[in-house]
Specification:
The complex is a heterodimer.
Chain A: E1 15-19, H1 22-27, H2 55-61, E2 66-75, E3 78-87, E4 93-103, H3 109-120, E5 130-138, E6 141-149, E7 153-155, H4 156-159, H5 167-186, E8 189-190, E9 199-202, E10 208-210, E11 217-218, E12 229-233, H6 239-242, H7 250-266, H8 275-280, H9 285-288, H10 294-303, H11 314-324
Antiparallel strand pairs in A: 1-12, 2-3, 3-4, 4-6, 5-6, 7-9, 8-11, 9-10
Helix pairs in contact in A: 5-7, 5-11, 7-10
Chain B: E1 2-6, E2 21-25, H1 31-36, E3 48-51, H2 65-71, H3 87-90, H4 93-107, H5 116-132, E4 138-140, H6 153-168, E5 175-182, H7 195-205, E6 212-218, H8 230-246, E7 250-254, H9 259-265, E8 270-273, H10 277-280, E9 297-300, E10 305-308, H11 312-318, H12 322-325, H13 333-341, H14 359-377, H15 381-405, H16 416-431
Parallel strand pairs in B: 1-2, 1-8, 2-3, 4-5, 5-6, 6-7, 7-8
Antiparallel strand pairs in B: 9-10
The chains are: A alpha+beta, B alpha/beta.
Chain lengths: 328, 433
């Protein structure tokens, strides 16, 4: 899913499926077997040589309710356009910008459905909210479309290419993403893929938005992943994800946010993307970002605690960053 | 602090000492009767909790008929048309049970309800029952965690439904989630690396509405009053510590006898026990109707266990262990004096070894453990840990000395002390306490 990123950036870490022999992982008896496969949710990995849809056809298929603008992203799963919705589903007039995603990979239908189901239950200023979704026929093919709130700004991974961000921005990201994590957890949903690519900074860098619940998991739902497998992005997995524990909570997302914040404050991934090193010896903020304000460093370090129950709750993290912000 | 596990009779033993409250077990009596009981006569029950005991949902009515008849009256176990017991309408409780036992047993599903609607109705009934009883906290029912359910998925489903019900009912009391662990899921896995324990603490800690966990251990193997399984005991310490120090939650622990004092050192705020075997441990087999009448046992705080009084108490006294073995209580004073005077057991009928003659022994046990609980409660956490460590180390030394002297029966508990000390020391080392 894409939310209007202004630039396509190559991700430095593949989204992977981590194949873990559960017994071996528990016994901690050797290196994990990891198979990296391109994630079909990752739009900028596999650029289709040809856009399968013409804008005019898309606009016509949607009954003229959208004016379709530039293409934001093309991938193995489909295409994303910036679009302006002129007529809402109920026929009323509208004028909202959306990131309009057309899904062309029927193999991902269940995951897309899951994301839609999750987002239909959730609305929050720090989440890219669902606008509408449905199916249309384009060139005889049934295509699922999903319109998401358009986030004007840049993805955090793109911002980080220019180097570390100031503590104030770090605190904004910490506050807002923690709020988003807290909110989705009220519906017992775990994002499972909090990483810089999935965080958008709105223009002005004062607000952050968590995007892409494509691999999020509701506790009630049957897993789409075989036992012993886990989803997420290498370099951003919590110990529980890494060990393919079946019952994750928001505390897992808190760990991932800790990595993101440390990367944001020091400008690079704290272990160079080495997931095993991250689990074996979680970095200390003072080591990788010696100039980080002490209060921020202390909070980030707590988010890295190996035991999920020991990490601060997302609500407490958001509160703490809110307190710190005026002082930064 | 010590709570008493409340049985059918609410009265605490005489000279019970500073008992802080009581936990009423759903299996103690039919719901209709429980709801009509007067708590005001029993001051310690000003602070009361109801254990909904959903972890007993698998009881077999063929062998545990009495308990099943009681439990089936609570709507979170079974659905039926049997009217609630009312002495004015139904005469004696025994008569009501005779009239309705078959229907109640027939309604017993032998497993917890499943499906959102059924779970919600069950949890709602459990919460409302606790509110009507005037409990000081709500204990959310959850099924037992067994080898078949060790992902804690069903349990979290019950907990989340319970939290939603509490929100809807605007419950302002502290809310605890039952964590009932069969020790079969704990044996053979190092507790500090046990993924189930991580999952449990993680799931509890991530629900801000929960005040904490109500921890119950099912002992499947032990034939003794006390648990001697190292992994199980250390698991309880790890979960308690993780929740209390790690996640700033509270832990109430039940059915581990005086190991509750050890867990209090690790941060448990309430531990519950009682004189009877069924008050000290939770074992599904104990609900089978084959239990004999209780006989008196002498609880020795110094030993952290019981001394058999049929043959051992006098023997150990004669061997010079009196001072170390005795625990000063109102009810125990008489036996101590008689032994010193050489007149035991003839002169002390209340401590005579015969079935059901347990009033003095129960009073002695309750006073001894409640005073110890209160003493622990009054200390700073670090001092509490040190006191429990000294207590266990002393119990090990005493146990070894008694072994050397040669106990005359198996009634004296001299096996568990080294296990308890070992797990406590390992917990201290790992927790850096």
């Amino acid at each position: 899913m894409d939310f209007g990123r202004s630039a396509c950036t190559a991700n430095q870490f593949l989204v992977v499926r981590v194949l873990i022999s559960r017994g071996r992982a528990l016994a901690n008896s050797g290196p994990l077997r990891v198979t990296e496969v391109p994630n079909s949710l990752e739009w900028n990995r596999t650029v289709s040589p040809k856009n399968p849809f013409r804008r005019a056809k898309v606009a016509a298929a949607l009954g003229g309710r959208y004016s379709i603008h530039e293409k934001l992203r093309v991938g193995g799963q489909g295409v994303v356009y910036r679009a302006v919705r002129t007529v809402a589903l109920d026929g009323s007039e509208a004028s909202d910008q959306v990131a309009l995603k057309l899904h062309t990979d029927p193999g991902q239908d269940v995951r897309v459905e899951r994301e839609i189901n999750a987002m239909e239950r959730l609305r929050h200023p720090n989440l890219a909210n669902l606008v509408e979704h449905g199916r249309v026929k384009i060139d005889g093919a049934s295509v699922r479309y999903v319109a998401w709130e358009f986030i004007a700004g840049q993805a955090l991974d793109h911002k980080l290419k220019a180097g570390p961000l100031p503590p104030r921005t770090v605190a904004c990201v910490g506050r807002d993403v923690a709020r988003a994590i807290e909110h989705i957890w009220t519906a017992r949903i775990v994002h499972r893929d909090v990483n810089p690519k999935n965080i958008m900074l709105r223009v002005g860098d004062r607000d952050a938005v968590l995007i892409d619940l494509g691999v999020a998991r509701h506790l009630d739902e049957k897993t789409l992943t075989a036992a012993g497998l886990t989803w997420g992005t290498m370099g951003y997995l919590s110990p529980e994800q890494y060990h393919a524990e079946p019952q994750l909570t928001c505390q897992s997302d808190v760990f991932c946010l800790g990595i993101v914040l440390l990367q944001t404050i020091c400008g690079h991934h704290p272990t160079g993307g080495d997931q095993a090193a991250l689990i074996a010896m979680p970095p200390r903020t003072s080591d990788v970002a010696p100039n980080a304000p002490a209060a921020i460093a202390e909070l980030i370090d707590k988010m890295f605690l190996p035991r999920a129950a020991f990490r601060p709750a997302p609500g407490a993290i958001a509160e703490k960053f809110s307190e710190l912000l005026p002082k930064l | 602090m010590l709570y008493l596990n409340v049985r059918y009779k609410f009265a605490a033993p005489d000279h019970a000492g500073p008992v802080a409250g009581g936990i009423i077990a759903a299996s103690a009596m039919p719901m209709g009767q429980l709801m009509r009981r007067d708590f005001r006569k029993h001051p310690y029950l000003q602070h009361r909790l109801l254990d909904p005991q959903l972890y007993l949902a698998s009881l077999d009515p063929n062998v545990a008929r009495g308990s099943v008849v009681n439990l089936a009256t609570f709507p979170w176990f079974a659905r039926h048309e049997v009217p609630a017991y009312d002495s004015e309408k139904h005469g004696t409780l025994a008569q009501w049970k005779t009239d309705n036992a078959d229907a109640l047993v027939a309604s017993w599903p032998r497993k917890p309800f499943s499906g959102q609607a059924a779970i919600e109705a069950a949890v709602r009934a459990a919460v409302q029952c606790q509110l009507e009883l005037g409990c000081n906290a709500v204990i959310l029912p959850t099924p037992m965690t067994t080898v078949a359910t060790q992902h804690f998925t069903t349990e979290t489903e019950w907990i989340d439904v319970g939290l939603a019900v509490c929100k809807e009912l605007r419950v302002t009391l502290p809310i605890f989630a039952t964590v009932a662990l069969s020790d079969t899921v704990l044996r053979g896995v190092p507790p500090h690396e046990h993924p189930l324990l991580h999952t449990i603490t993680n799931q509890i800690a991530s629900r801000e509405q929960l005040a904490g966990a109500y921890l119950v251990l099912e002992q499947t193997g032990d034939d003794q009053y006390v648990c001697t399984v190292r992994d199980s005991l250390l698991s309880l310490l790890v979960v308690t510590d993780d929740l209390v120090r790690g996640a700033s939650r509270q832990v109430i622990v039940n059915y581990v006898g005086t190991f509750g004092a050890v867990l209090a050192a690790a941060g448990a705020s309430i531990w519950s026990s009682g004189y009877y075997l069924s008050q000290r441990r939770m074992k599904l087999a104990d609900f089978d109707e084959k239990m004999g009448l209780a006989k008196p046992r002498y609880f020795s705080l110094g030993l952290a266990g019981d001394v058999g009084i049929e043959r051992d108490l006098q023997w150990f006294f004669q061997k010079g262990f009196g001072e170390k073995l005795f625990t000063k209580t109102e009810a125990g004073e008489v036996v101590q004096a008689a032994l010193a005077a050489g007149t035991y057991p003839q002169s002390v009928p209340e401590w005579e070894f015969r079935p059901n003659n347990i009033q003095a022994a129960a009073s002695h046990y309750t006073e001894a453990v409640s005073r110890f609980g209160a003493a622990l409660r009054s200390l700073e956490p670090v001092k509490r840990v040190e006191l429990v460590h000294r207590w266990l180390a002393g119990a090990v030394r005493l146990g070894e000395a008694l072994k050397t002297a040669g106990p005359k029966s198996y009634a004296t508990e001299i096996v568990h002390q080294p296990v308890w000390l070992d797990v406590f020391e390992e917990w201290r080392r790992r927790a850096d306490m």
